[in-house]
């Protein structure tokens, strides 16, 4: 099994496709199964429907299962209808329960039940258990393919057990020790087992300080635990400490990607519409609520400008700097928002504390405002010949940026205290709020100094 470099990929793929179209089964199997699984998936994705049918014919169900697991959900939903029912059932029986659960959770209920009914009862029961947990929890993303051992087993017995059961397990680098009631009592690494004397009992080499998660733990918290402890896997236990599954690092990578995508969608007010595969109608439907809400906020912005109509009529030149004030306030606030959402997600906010974070971002806003004000005080007199105008715009921007960073920091903290995802304090929302505050500051200062312009 090898991973192709970019240079050889095209010619090698062409060769494999040729073995398919000429129905050279032996050559196809030799070349295709030699590929790295990632390359197998990429090659399969490039095939037309008629050619894919040959793949199902040439590969056994357990061989195709690895390819199927590597496909995107939309592709899996298309491919499953191309498979013979018996072939599909055999394929699902060879897949990990968590991968099957992820796939079935997106299907309509009758189709999902039909697939479960066609599977082996033991495999189907594992999948049903995973589907019974709330989405985005440890129970929903754990795998049932793990190896547990007893404290009284010897190292030799465990190694022999691994030879028999290891090929079907998700990972064997950590082995979890349970008592007679399947309660988690310890963990031992494969390395410790290998170097231990063959007659050494597991209880003498295992660690009893086991970091575990309960089935109802949020998946993001699980990801943070595995990241913080540098685990390859973490055990999942019931409320009574019974070992019911494990979560591996590859599952955590998927969780991090999913949570990051969700946060990006929240911050940009486009949650659920960041996937380019969704239709234009679906994307518009998911974005519309925020856009409509922000449209009403825009009316408030217009009303603020309207309240200072006399000031604008007196000094029309003030209107030139409205976009500068609004854009600077919105951009700075969004930056602070991104910093805070990231800080809350990684846990660094809890380590530093509320006031340290607010002081840090406020100080950042003050420094940014000062830099920008100095630049404007130099540039505006040169362009417009007015030092007083430069002072008004400079002071306004200084105050606006100082406040904008504070708003971008405090809003996600408040949302977190309300037990909501801080990412819903979207960039457009923060931008609009800071626009309004910036305009109020700008026109208030300009109105008070109007006689000097």
Number of H- or I-type helical stretches: 22
Total count of domains: 3
CATH architecture of the largest domain: Orthogonal Bundle
Mean pLDDT: 84
| Highest-level CATH class of the largest domain | Mainly Alpha
**Helix share bin:** 55-70%
Alpha-beta classification: mainly alpha
Radius of gyration based on Cα positions: 30 Å
- Give me the count of strands: 6
The run of helices and strands is HHHHHHHHHHHEHEEHEHEEHHHHHHHH
N-to-C CA distance: 77 Å
The profile of the biggest β sheet is:
3 strands, mixed
Q: Name the shape in a single word.
A: elongated
Q: From the 3D structure, determine the CATH topology of the largest domain.
A: Tetracycline Repressor, domain 2
Fourth CATH level, the homologous superfamily of the largest domain: SLC41 divalent cation transporters, integral membrane domain
The residue ranges in which pLDDT falls below 50 over 5 or more consecutive positions are: none
Tell me the fraction of residues in β-strands, as a range.
Answer: 5-15%
Order of strands side by side in the largest beta sheet?
1-2-3
């Amino acid at each position: 099994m090898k991973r192709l470099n970019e240079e050889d990929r095209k010619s090698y793929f062409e060769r494999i496709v040729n073995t398919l179209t000429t129905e050279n089964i032996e050559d196809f199997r030799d070349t295709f199964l030699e590929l790295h699984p990632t390359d197998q998936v990429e090659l399969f994705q490039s095939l037309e429907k008629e050619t894919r049918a040959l793949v199902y014919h040439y590969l056994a169900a357990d061989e195709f299962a690895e390819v199927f697991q590597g496909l995107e959900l939309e592709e899996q939903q298309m491919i499953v209808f191309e498979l013979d029912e018996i072939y599909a059932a055999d394929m699902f029986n060879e897949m990990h329960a968590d991968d099957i659960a992820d796939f079935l959770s997106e299907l309509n209920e009758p189709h999902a039940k039909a697939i479960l009914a066609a599977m082996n009862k033991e495999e189907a029961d594992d999948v049903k258990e995973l589907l019974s947990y709330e989405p985005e929890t440890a129970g929903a993303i754990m795998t049932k393919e793990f190896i547990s051992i007893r404290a009284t087993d010897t190292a030799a017995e465990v190694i022999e057990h691994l030879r028999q059961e290891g090929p079907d397990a998700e990972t064997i680098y950590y082995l979890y020790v349970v008592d007679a009631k399947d309660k988690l009592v310890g963990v031992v690494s494969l390395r410790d087992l290998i170097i231990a004397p063959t007659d050494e009992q597991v209880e003498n080499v295992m660690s009893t300080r086991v970091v575990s998660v309960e089935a109802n733990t949020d998946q993001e918290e699980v990801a943070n635990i595995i990241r913080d402890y540098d685990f390859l896997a973490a055990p999942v236990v019931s409320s009574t400490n019974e070992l019911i599954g494990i979560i591996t690092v590859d599952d955590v990578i998927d969780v991090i990607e999913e949570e990051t995508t969700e946060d990006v969608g929240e911050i940009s007010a486009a949650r659920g519409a960041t996937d380019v595969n969704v239709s234009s109608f679906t994307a518009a439907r998911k974005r519309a609520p925020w856009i409509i809400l922000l449209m009403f906020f825009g009316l408030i912005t217009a009303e603020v400008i309207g309240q200072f109509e006399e000031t604008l009529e007196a000094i029309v030149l003030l209107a030139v700097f409205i976009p500068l004030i609004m854009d600077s306030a919105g951009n700075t606030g969004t930056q602070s928002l991104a910093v805070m959402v990231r800080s809350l997600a990684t846990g660094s906010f809890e380590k530093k504390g509320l006031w340290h974070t607010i002081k840090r971002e406020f100080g950042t806003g003050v420094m940014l405002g000062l830099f920008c004000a100095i630049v404007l005080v130099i540039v505006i007199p040169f362009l417009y010949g007015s030092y007083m105008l430069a002072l008004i715009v400079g002071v306004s921007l200084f105050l606006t940026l100082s406040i904008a960073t504070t708003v971008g920091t405090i809003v996600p903290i408040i949302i977190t205290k309300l037990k909501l995802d801080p990412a819903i304090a979207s960039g457009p929302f923060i931008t609009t709020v800071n626009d309004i505050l910036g305009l109020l500051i700008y026109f208030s200062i300009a109105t008070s100094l109007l006689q000097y312009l």
